[in-house]
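Q: For a teaching handout, I want to show students what a protein-ligand complex looks like in token form. Below are the inputs, and the small molecule is zinc ion. Please produce the holo structure.
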Amino acid sequence: MLRLFNTMSRKKEKFVPLEQGKVKMYTCGPTVWDYAHIGNFRTYVFQDLLRRWLEYRSYTVTQVMNLTDVDDRTIKASRERGVPLGVHTKQYIDAFFEHKRLLNIEEAEVYPRATEHVNEMVEFVKKLMEKGYAYRAEDGSIYYDISKFKDYGKLSKMRLYELKPGARVKVDTYEKEQAWDFALWKAWDETDGDVFWETEIGKGRPGWHLECSVMSMKYLGDTLDIHSGGVDLIFPHHENEIAQSEAVTGQRFVNYWLHGEYLMVEGERMAKHLGNYYTLKDLLDKGYNTRAVRYLLMSTHYRQQLNFTFDSLKAAEKAVERLNIFLERLTETNGKTAGQELKKLMTATRKDFETALDDDLNITKALASLFDFVRDVNRMIDQGEVNRKEAEAVRDMMMRFDRILAVMGEVKKELLPKDIEDLIQKRETAREAKDWKTADEIRQRIYEKGIILEDTATGVKWRRKS
Ligand SMILES: [Zn+2]
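A: Here is the structure, written as tokens, with zinc ion included.
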């Protein structure tokens, strides 16, 4: 039985979907104003673990992950750079999908973009106005009146005396101390430049909170099974989503709220504005591999803070290596039968692994039982036990676990630093000109940078020196 910690009740609850065998899941996606860093990806990896575990448990998952491609930050960044909003965000959308793929994060079913759903947002605001939950301010912006929604604060457990009815906030992010009426629709002003829509409710653009309410309900219906994001989204983002959605439908918006903790660096949250962040590319450029990064981000329980250090990344690399060396060893093992002992061990390991993940995705416990198993089977192999058939069965079980972990087997193609890509290109040109001397010199230079090239029938391949 799967149990998940619901932020709404602050308790682990038995997971029962609305429709048997199906899960409707919404995950707040990236705001594509800049590269997502590995702190952001920790949340996406946790959501991927959740998705994979639901699939392992035979649920059909419909996951919607939005792309916030218009908000305060995207507009500010594109204006500073002097390029149109769409040009600015495209670069970061592309990078996001590439990094997500490298981290083996499964594809969601739908990736709606805010800029493509403005009509629906306008309709939604009109409904809120008709029902008396929204009002227009002097500058033409439309605000949500939080005093009209009696359950306001139920997710973040804010006390009502902290509310300041009538006080308004136009920016997308603000602190809990400022529980004010928030902007649903922001009337155009000069800081928006050429980013605006001419609509029935005026010239302007949607607020960030509105975007998620509209896009989640469009694709998943009035009530979702699971909504997740980082803990920093509990207030105001998710609180405001509840207020908007439930005011319109009169129904419960979400049954299970799941929130992932921060990735920390030296006691502080990894964040762009603190300058203490790494992107996936930064780590690959330093010679780490994507599987180690995924393992590191995944292997601490999602409700615990994870402190990022290079030592822990190296340890993650070792752990992944141990699993893969074990897999390889299994392909060669040809000893005498290990008999009942191995059978019992496999049954117990599988049970422990599954029980742990059913308990609010207790990955730490699941991995502990897996590594105990690896140690025990390695010992059997050392003693000349484990025959071919048994080795195959163990391998199958490992691959089954890897449907969740996604760190074993074939390595995904990784990003190369730009200077090496350029060198490879130069070498290709030299080879085409049959200038073997230059080609060899370049190969040597690349080797000195830690990359080994191989010329194969299907083109040039590369791998990192171990
Ligand atoms: Zn959201």
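A: Two things your students might notice: Residues 28, 212, 237 surround zinc ion (CB under 6 Å). The mean pLDDT is 93.
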